[in-house]
Amino acid sequence: xxxxxxxxxxxxxxxxxxxxxxxxxxxxxxxxxxxxxxxxxxxxxxxxxxxxxxxxxxxxxxxxxxxxxxxxxxxxxxxxxxxxxxxxxxxxxxxxxxxxxxxxxxxxxxxxxxxxxxxxxxxxxxxxxxxxxxxxxxxxxxxxxxxxxxxxxxxxxxxxxxxxxxxxxxxxxxxxxxxxxxxxxxxxxxxxxxxxxxxxxxxxxxxxxxxxxxxxxxxxxxxxxxxxxxxxxxxxxxxxxxxxxx
Length: 246
Prior knowledge:
Distance between the termini: 73 Å
Strand content: under 5%
Number of strands: 0
Number of helices: 12
Keywords: Nitrate assimilation
Helix content: 40-55%
Protein name: Nitrate reductase molybdenum cofactor assembly chaperone
Number of domains: 1
Pfam families: Nitrate_red_del
Organism: Agromyces neolithicus
C-alpha cells in the first residue's frame, strides 16, 4: 500500500506593514494652498513644462514648515539627478503599471468595479458644490487635479474631498515607499498637510496595502461619501474656473 503524502501547506504570505505614521504640521491657509499646488505640479507627468518650472518650484518651497520643505526638496533633487528621460520612464512604470500606486483616488475605494462610476460622479458633485465645473482630459478624481482644486478654492469642499479619500492617499504613500520611489516624498508632504489618521483608518489602510483595491462588486458596500449632503451652498471662490486643472 502506497503511503499517503502529507497535505501540502499553503504558501506563507508576507504581509506588509504600514509606514511610520506622520505627525501633521501646522500650516497657514496660504502655506497649505502653496503646498498643495506644488504637490499637484510635482505629481503631474514630467513633460517639458514640468522641467521648465522646476527652478520656480524649488524656490517656492522656501518658507513652508521644515518637514514639508524637506520632503519637496528631496524629490526635486532626485528628479534633477534622474534627468528628464529617466524620470518620465519611472513615472509611467510607477503610476501606470502598479495598482497600488494609482493617482486616481476613487480607485482605492471602488477598484475596477461598477461602483467606481458612482464615485466619479461624487467628485463632480463636489466640484459643483464649490462652484466649479470639471472640464479636463483627466478624470475628476486625479490627485493632482484635486490638490490644485484645494490650492485655488476657498471652499471647504476641497478639504472635505481630500478627507473622504484619506485612506487612498495613505495607501499610495505606503506603496511608493515600498517601491523606494522619489514621489513618496511628494505624497508625504501632502499627508503632512492633512489631519492625522485614527486607528480605524490605519486598519483600513493596512488591509488595502495587503489586499489591494477591490476587483469585483460582490460584497462591496462602497457608496458616495456622505459629506456632500451636509454641505451648505457655497459661492464660487478663488480663481476663475479656467485657471484650475478642472
